[in-house]
Design brief:
With 127 residues, the protein is an all-alpha fold. The protein has one domain (3-126). It has helices at 3-23, 29-51, 57-74, 80-86, 89-95, 104-126. Helix 1 runs antiparallel to helix 2 (29-51), helix 2 packs across helix 6 (104-126) and helix 3 (57-74) packs antiparallel against helix 6. The chain starts with a helix and ends with a helix.
């Protein structure tokens, strides 16, 4: 299977899974937060690799992790333009609302899982 098709299938699978885990009331809040964050990290790595398939997967994972950390720290600032973005559903999903130190370990785990998964997809697509 071509690499970009495998990435697209990963994205198509992880988006509903991430939303289900994050917003379903059947899971405890801590579970939803941790596994939702892990799913989002995998999604972003797959999305960047889909757009730039020749980029290093390791550098992509590191870049996604750093970007996520910056977004997390931006939650400390309540600037009017950021608040206006957060008032929308896409803005809230991307920028979040509340800074939590406890979000960083799931980001790291998600990036390691994403790096491993996407690396396997690339190897399998090369035969």
């Amino acid at each position: 299977m071509p690499y970009r098709i495998a990435l697209l299938l990963t994205i198509v699978f992880i988006v509903p899974l991430g939303y289900f885990v994050r917003f379903s009331s059947i899971f405890p809040d801590w579970f939803s937060d941790i596994f939702g964050s892990i799913a989002y990290q995998i999604l972003f790595i797959a999305l960047v690799q889909f757009c730039f398939p020749k980029w290093s997967i390791a550098k992509t994972a590191i870049g996604v992790f750093l970007f996520s950390c910056v977004i997390e720290f931006l939650q400390l600032w309540k600037l009017p333009f950021l608040q206006a973005i957060r008032a929308t559903l896409p803005g809230r999903l991307i920028l979040g609302n509340t800074f939590l130190w406890s979000d960083f370990p799931p980001y790291a785990v998600g990036n390691l899982a994403g790096w491993f998964l996407i690396r396997k997809l690339r190897k399998l697509s090369r035969g």
